[in-house]
Amino acid sequence: MKKAKWAHLAAGGQRSSPQVWCSRGVVTSALSCDSTGEALRPLEGVRVLDLSRVLAGPFATMILGDLGAEVIKVERPGTGDDTRAWGPPFLGSESVYFLSVNRNKKSIAVDLKNPRGARLVQQLAAECDVLVENFLPGKLSHLGLGFQQLLHSNPSLIYCSISGYGQSGPWAQSPGYDSIASAVSGMMFITGPEGGEPVRPGVAMTDLATGLFAHGSIMAALLQRHRSGGGGGGVHIDCNLLSSQVSCLSHIAANFLNAGKEAQRWGSAHESIVPYQSFPTRDGHLVVAAGNDKQFVRLCQVLQMEDLSRDPDYTSNHLRVANRKELIRTLTQRFVQQTTAEWIRAFQGSGVSVGPINSMQQVFSHPQVQHNQLIQQMEHPTAGAIRVPGPAVRYGGAPPAEPTPPPLIGQHTVQVLREVLSHDDDVIEELLQSGVVAQNPLR
């Protein structure tokens, strides 16, 4: 990284500019346009080296790619990311799991066990702004790819490590799996039916929360570097599944830490607010959230049970929590008398928030989901037309940029070696022939 490339910002007068600076020049804001009039995304010009696999790391780097970063995904020749084999279902030879979290990336297949492969990754790290990895702590240092080692060639590198339990401590060398971290962190202890067995959340929320923490930390580090004029030192970010999930225990953790109150499983109900849960209807389920006393009165009016709101056992949330069982039994008997759609119409405009428990088919036919453009379609080179959940965030009201499909293993190996490292064709061919790297023939 050359400090001269940051000289314009360091000279002063630019900190109020809506520009973001990267090691290879200035990046205009998401609301700016390039020379063709195309809107630029916030991270255009930022380059990310992605050494992660499975979910937390790839989810974080996919978000960075959605925001315009160039993401170079390093994979093992032949097998690639573990999730490429996680199926069924498959589309062609591609697992849908892998396709769901790897759009907007380039794949380069490199044998990291080969010293020449490790050196190639060192060279790539010198040309990148961010590196994301989720190896066991210390593993990459043995390959010459640790944070301190890469700082020699890239003193401004943002190096984000994602692990199961942190970079040090008694569990640091334990493999990080979402279900295990979800159990150890207490997430599974509080998830499940009241009086029933603990259950794993339907998606890997501990992995996904860690990916979001990693993405946010990387964005903060880029901002910090912008404020320093680009000449600041590199930073090592420690994200781990255990810390992410424990921090997300929020009021459940605070209840224990401050009041000594042990947690329990409540199913769809809320420990401190009543009624705030799902109820069976004639044909499905409806979730009701009456978060204050006024909303409870309105709830009773819609249900045509006004006397219930005046019952001295239910006139405050504190009393409703204390008398939860009888109240829920009474409400359940009323909700089951009509269909979910009938109740939704009845509550419309009431000020009480309700919603159906939707299947996947219902989710992706929901008018608001469609309006928010949460289905993103791409044309994959072997799987054909694929659809995945789109980005959750919009910048400046602009529609999401046209995505590139998740890559084949090693689809961009030659392109990256030629364009990022400036290797000539003879060197690239020798690397291919020696097995240090691999290029997918279906590029």
Describe the structure.
This protein is α/β, with parallel strands linked by helices and 443 residues long. The chain is built from 19 helices and 16 strands. The chain has a 7-stranded mixed beta sheet with strand order 10-9-8-3-4-7-16, with helices on both faces. Strands 11-12-13 form a 3-stranded antiparallel beta sheet, covered by helices on one side. The protein has a two-stranded antiparallel sheet with strand order 1-2. Strand 3 (47-51), helix 2 (56-66) and strand 4 form a beta-alpha-beta unit. Helix 2 (56-66) crosses helix 8 (205-227) and helix 8 packs across helix 9 (241-247). The radius of gyration is 26 Å and the shape is elongated. The two termini are 31 Å apart. Residues 1-31 have low confidence and may be disordered.
